[in-house]
Every structure is written in structure tokens, then in C-alpha cells.
Task: inverse folding
């Protein structure tokens, strides 16, 4: 089992962080490894929405489809893979922090299969590093947008 939890404080209101992160069209701007996201169902994001992602991870190109299985706007979003290299769940939570800022968590968990199962410990460490970079990038993008408005 791979279970990676990362978090960050973003000096931007929770509604801005949650709206930005919950929109798959923004994923390539803050996820270093995501190259594209294609809506397979009509917008907006809601339970049942499916999105196809193309990413690079550990030197390999991955294509996978996520379905939103839980969505509480401005609080929590959970997506599960329905197609891809191995079963994975990604969840985001957003909470108010320090008077109008946001504490965000990003969690990836799943059960690698096949070859991925053999490299799961290495994969978890790589995911932790990548998620940390992604959250730092998200923080920079949103805080720059927040200061610009």
C-alpha cells in the first residue's frame, strides 16, 4: 500500500485555493508531472465527473482516468482511478488557517500491482517529493495571483 500525505499553508483565501485546485484545467499549471487533463464528462466538476490525465512520473509517460467520488465544495475532493497503471485515490482538503488563509492537504494512496508493487517503497518516496514540489508550486501560483488582485 502506498499512502502519501503532504500539506501546506497558502496565504490565500480558502475559496480561491479550493476553486483553483478543484478545476482540472489548472492541474498542469501546478502539478509538475501533469502534462494535460481532458474532461471526459461535461463540466463542472461534480461526483461522477471523469478526467483523463497524461503525466510523466519516474521517467515514464502515464495515462490514467480519474472519477470524482466525493466532492464537498471548498472542503474536500476525492478522485479514484478508473483506468491507469494501478488503483489510486487522490484527495484534497482545504481548511481556514490563520485568519483568511488556507491549510491544504494532498493525499495519494493506492495498491500498486505488477512491477509497480515491487517498487512501491521507492514510488512512495518519489511521490512524497513530487507532491511537496507540487504544493510549493501551487502556493507560489496562488499567492502571486492573490497579490496581483
Result:
Amino acid at each position: 500500500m502506498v499512502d502519501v500525505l503532504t500539506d501546506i499553508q497558502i496565504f490565500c483565501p480558502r475559496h480561491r485555493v479550493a476553486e483553483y485546485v478543484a478545476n482540472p484545467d489548472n492541474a498542469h499549471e501546478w502539478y509538475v508531472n501533469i502534462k494535460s487533463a481532458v474532461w471526459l464528462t461535461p463540466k463542472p466538476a461534480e461526483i461522477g465527473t471523469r478526467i483523463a490525465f497524461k503525466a510523466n512520473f519516474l521517467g515514464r509517460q502515464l495515462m490514467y482516468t480519474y472519477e470524482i467520488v466525493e466532492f464537498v465544495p471548498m472542503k474536500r475532493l476525492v478522485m479514484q482511478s478508473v483506468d491507469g497503471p494501478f488503483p489510486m485515490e487522490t484527495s484534497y482538503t482545504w481548511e481556514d488557517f490563520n485568519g483568511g488563509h488556507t491549510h491544504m492537504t494532498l493525499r495519494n494512496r493506492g495498491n500498486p500491482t505488477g512491477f509497480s508493487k515491487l517498487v512501491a517503497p521507492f514510488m512512495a518516496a518519489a511521490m512524497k517529493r513530487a507532491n511537496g514540489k507540487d504544493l510549493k508550486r501551487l502556493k507560489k501560483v496562488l499567492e502571486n495571483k492573490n497579490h496581483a488582485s
